[in-house]
Amino acid sequence: MQWDNETRLAVETALNESEVLGVRLGPCGGWCDLLLHVLALPEAGPIDPDTRRILRLTSPTQVKILLRADRMAASGYGPVIPLGNLDAVEEFFASLSWTGSMYGWKFLDDSSLTHDWPAETSLTIDIRPPAAAPHTLYWFNECGRDEAETKVGYCIEGTVAFESLAVLRADATPQPLSEFVFQGQNYWRALQRGDERLGVQAQRAAQSGAPSWRHNVRN
């Protein structure tokens, strides 16, 4: 991709209010995939019936993940919960009962997004020397699950240092980055102008039976 400030802002807009539901490393660490549900609206026609996307971050140098109990009191987040490997991360995502969306419009190349992180994270995977990765993506999911008849909230966050990015559909067919960012930007433009495709009933109809990365998760 051509990496400039305009493209970065467009990608961040397309990622706003997306859900991260998985993190997977490719063979030999060639890439890191984030499994997403995104907001996507074509120029004409209905809402995309399958909003699953794979954000493929190429040539990653480091993956960091931080898992803590969500803020339940004035004391803030709970202590760091260790994760032994990405299989443990997968097990955590698979155990969720509900999930949230990323917000804030800023996800790329901004070190301030992790300024409140503790010194030790839940999991750090060093893949190759850090000098090879010019970019960083920050993601998070405020989520939870039912434990012993109690609803327990968590915040799982992460960063990936990487070289470039691409977008795939759920069946691993490539989606042009220009199309991905257009559909994301178009969603927000349509929302502002009151597009009837984004009415409550229309969105419920679009979501009914829509494929999901995690069938046990509810919003």
Please, could you describe this protein's structure?
The chain has 219 residues and is an alpha+beta fold. A hairpin with a 4-residue loop joins strand 8 and strand 9. The longest helix has 17 residues. The model has no long low-confidence stretch (mean pLDDT 89).
SS-derived structural category: alpha+beta
Number of strands: 9
Number of helices: 4
Parts with pLDDT < 50 across at least 5 consecutive residues: none
What is the percentage of strand-forming residues?
A: 25-35%
**Which shape, going by the Cα principal axes?**
globular
Spatial strand order of the main sheet: 1-2-3-8-9
Succession of helices and strands: HEEEEHEEEEEHH
Radius of gyration over all CA atoms, rounded = 17 Å
Distance between the termini: 32 Å
Largest sheet: 5 strands, antiparallel
What integer is the average pLDDT?
89
Fraction of helical residues: 10-25%
